[in-house]
Design goal:
With about 375 residues, the protein is an alpha/beta fold. The chain has two domains: about 150 residues, Rossmann fold; about 170 residues, Hypothetical protein af1432 (Orthogonal Bundle), CATH 1.10.3210.10. Helices cover about 55% and strands about 5% of the residues.
């Protein structure tokens, strides 16, 4: 019988997340040496490595030195009683299985123990066979709890992985649409790729966290995705836009934000870029007229990159092929503080001066 119990105890206790080995460890806490020794002998005979303590403070010290899977503790003890010990154990070692032992057979006491987090309650005097049976039951319940938690964790991970795959596929499709849209116009072909590279250089120069840099890189590629909703004859118009046409084009920020917001709920930086990259530091931008530090930093970064690429690229209504690098950087500095974030402008200029980024050539399409 003892061999069978040892196997069962070890199998159950082996799920202990803080155990150093598969051998189950037990802590017996009781201020009565005789009773404590009886339980120690029983648990050792059934295959446990056993520690002992005479009160709650000693028990916590033992747990700190050698965390135990199973704790058998008396309730009425000097210095720190079983209730206080149980509460501390639930906070510091929530996966430990705790069985309370008391000479008080009061139902309310048992209910109080269970409500605090004990897995079972045993009254004195008791038979050793009963102790073994109750311990087996306690460890089995603990095993089931840990298995259920592991199952839930794996299930959540699978759901999250599937959601990421769906999101990546969605973003890939959206990006393909954006690139197809740009490919129709030789004057904007490659614009988003260049903006992405310029914005990434700024973000790195500002020493932003890796997750923000990734969002800036992707946001640069997708910042104009809302132009899918802009009429093609306006996008490709060979002359300057009228006031109404310009207003129509400038709806692309909110259109793009609506397209992405339903799917990219866990990437707020990306959504911020799409919506706010045409806002200005002085509050005169679109679509919401936010200003200064109220504009998300990632959007301020892309704003600089977007405007710089527009300055250095040709347009249908311009025959100058865009500004030269010194002139474009001078324009960014001139507008720093009113249109652009000065820190982002300085970081961009520094990136050029250090050679971290160079002027990216526009690739003309065959017409």
């Amino acid at each position: 019988m003892t061999a069978i119990l040892t196997h069962d105890f070890a199998a159950s206790a082996g799920l202990d997340p803080f155990a150093g080995s598969a051998v189950p460890r037990c802590l017996v806490v009781d201020d009565e040496p005789r009773l404590r020794q009886i339980l120690v002998r029983v648990m050792r005979a059934d295959g446990f490595v056993v520690d002992e303590a005479s009160n709650g403070f000693e028990a916590l010290a033992q747990m700190q030195a050698h965390p135990s899977t199973l704790i058998l503790t008396d309730i009425e003890m000097p210095q720190m009683d079983g209730f206080a010990l149980l509460r501390e154990l639930r906070v510091r070692w929530p996966d430990a299985a705790v069985m309370m032992i008391s000479g008080n057979g009061d139902v309310q006491t048992a209910v109080s123990c269970l409500s605090v987090g004990a897995l079972d309650y045993l009254t004195k005097p008791f038979h050793l066979d009963e102790v073994r049976a109750r311990i087996t039951s306690v460890l089995e319940r603990r095993r089931l709890v840990l298995e259920n938690r592991e199952y839930q964790t794996r299930l959540e991970q699978k759901v999250q992985a599937q959601a990421r795959r769906i999101e990546q596929q969605f973003l890939g499709g959206v990006q393909a649409l954006a690139e197809a849209l740009e490919a129709k116009d030789p004057y904007t072909h490659g614009h988003s790729v260049r903006v992405s590279q310029y914005a990434t250089a700024i973000a790195r120069r500002l020493e932003l966290p890796p997750n923000v840099i990734r969002a800036v890189t992707l946001g640069g590629r997708l910042h104009d995705i809302g132009k899918i909703g802009v009429r093609e004859e306006i996008l490709s118009k060979p002359a300057r836009l009228t006031t109404d046409e310009y207003a129509h084009v400038m709806t692309h920020m909110t259109v793009g934000w609506k397209i992405l917001s339903a799917m990219v709920v866990d990437q707020p930086e990306l959504l911020n870029i799409v919506r706010y990259h045409h806002e200005r530091m002085d509050g005169a931008g679109l679509p919401d007229g936010v200003k200064g530090a109220d504009i998300p930093l990632e959007a301020r970064i892309v704003s600089v990159a977007d405007s710089f690429d527009a300055m250095t690229s040709g347009r249908r209504y311009r025959d100058d092929g865009g500004k030269q690098l010194p002139e474009a950087l001078k324009e960014l500095r001139r507008c720093a503080g009113t249109q652009f974030d000065p820190d982002c402008v300085n970081a961009f200029v520094d990136a050029f001066q250090s050679g971290d980024v160079t002027l990216l050539a526009r690739v003309d399409l065959q017409q």
